[in-house]
């Protein structure tokens, strides 16, 4: 029996050819679980603090593909996915990609910081709050992970443990979409992220 | 001769708090100064489990019943059932869990000077539920055991 709740439907269409110059020889990937662009809604902006006390807004990442992962230290399925996200961060951060973790532990940094240190998490993690959770539909079930495209819209939502390939293919397709940039800055695609 | 004290225990009502329900404990009668036991039935929704009182890993949140008020009762020691060892995709080794229907057994001692009349022992059952691929935040269910000292 499949354990995947929403994301098992993801499939990959293989290479269609080489991409245009500037994108190297990457293989085009099509992730079936991504919503068509016209159906995507803006990811609500939020203001949270990371482990260093620095303020993080989702809108800081406009122009990048973002994995936004709601998780908790007591959540076994979350612990499976986090190393996948670390790998994705390592491989793709220079391509205009970032992972953002939102920890939903009631105990906050007291339990989250040791976990991050033990695992060597290489992406920004914030402590979530009720407001942020509500903006994203409540996020009662963990993990809940949003794939956000370069225009700041939610391209896919995975509730529960997904497959590594789902995330890899989804990120790759979003990175290959027109308008991809290496990092936010002048000339990047800029969109407004509206909080609901 | 000291009057015989009888204690009757029962729940005020079943308590439900997300994927776990606390049912009505068994009714118990005992003499003042005696030890009395009560069973507290618990049901976990089909397809879900909660960590046992001794989870397989430190990071997992155990099922735990604690008493905030015992009234004229003393003790309140909780005996948990034998857990199930179940393997899930998200864990390398089998997890120690409770699922389906099970009971907690509680042992009280009626205080030697317990006054006749009704009372309530108030407890909190903390748990954290998951299904095969998703986990839910820890929650607390009320456990209210009423008694009658006769």
Keywords, please?
heterodimer; A: 196 residues; alpha+beta; Glutaredoxin; 6-stranded mixed sheet; two-stranded antiparallel ribbon; 4 helices; 21% strand; globular; disordered N terminus; B: 150 residues; mainly beta; Immunoglobulin-like; 5-stranded antiparallel sheet
What does this structure look like?
The complex is a heterodimer of chains A (196) and B (150). Chain A has 196 residues and is of the alpha+beta class. Chain A has one domain: 3-Layer(aba) Sandwich (Glutaredoxin). Chain A is built from four helices and ten strands. Chain A has helices at residues 76-92, 109-119, 130-135, 164-176; strands at residues 12-13, 30-31, 41-42, 47-49, 55-57, 65-71, 97-103, 124-127, 144-148, 153-159. A six-stranded mixed beta sheet of chain A has the order 3-10-9-6-7-8, with helices on one face. In chain A, helix 1 (76-92) runs parallel beside helix 4 (164-176). Chain A is globular and about 40 Å long. Chain B is mainly β and 150 residues long. Chain B has one domain (7-149): Thiol:disulfide interchange protein DsbD, N-terminal domain (Immunoglobulin-like), CATH 2.60.40.1250. In chain B, the strands form three sheets. Chain B has a five-stranded antiparallel beta sheet, with no helix packed on it. In chain B, 35% of the residues are buried. Mean pLDDT of chain B is 88; it is low at 1-14. Chain A binds chain B through residues 3-5, 72-80, 104, 106, 115, 140-143, 159-161, and chain B through 59-61, 88-91, 95, 128, 130-138.
Structural class of chain A: alpha+beta
From the 3D coordinates, which CATH architecture of chain A would you assign?
3-Layer(aba) Sandwich
Number of domains of chain A: 1
- The CATH superfamily of chain B appears as Thiol:disulfide interchange protein DsbD, N-terminal domain
CATH architecture of chain B, by name, is Sandwich
Count of discrete structural domains of chain B: 1
